[in-house]
Amino acid sequence: MISCLILPKVAYQLKHLEQEKHELRRRFENREGEWEGRVSELESDVKQLQDELEKQHVHLREADREKTRAVQELSEQNQRLLDQLSKIRY
Fold it and tell me: What angle do CA 81, 85, 90 make, to 5 degrees?
């Protein structure tokens, strides 16, 4: 008789636990999908920032080359002017 009373209660609890498990799994899958989407967005942002950083490095290297070239040209021009000045003095 006790088992007849316990069995329906256990069956009800089991059904309730299965429903709760199903709900938790659904919520987990939703969250997992949200996080996967967010991770994808962040990976895209990282790629975009890496590309932008590379462009900035390229521009910086170009600016350094231009600066070096300008310094070299000015040094050569200064040397020519010094040579001309020394010729004029003597």
Answer: 150
12-70 tens-digit pLDDT: 999 999 999 999 999 999 999 999 999 999 999 999 999 999 999 999 999 999 999 99
What's the residue count for the chain? 90
pTM for the model stands at: 0.61
Burial class (CB in 10 A: 0-12, 13-18, 19+), 17: exposed
How far CA 76 is from CA of 55, 65, 80, 84, in Å, comes to: 31, 16, 6, 12
Question: Could you tell me where the DSSP H helices lie in 1-90?
Answer: 2-89
Cα–Cα distance, 85 to 57 (Å, whole number): 41
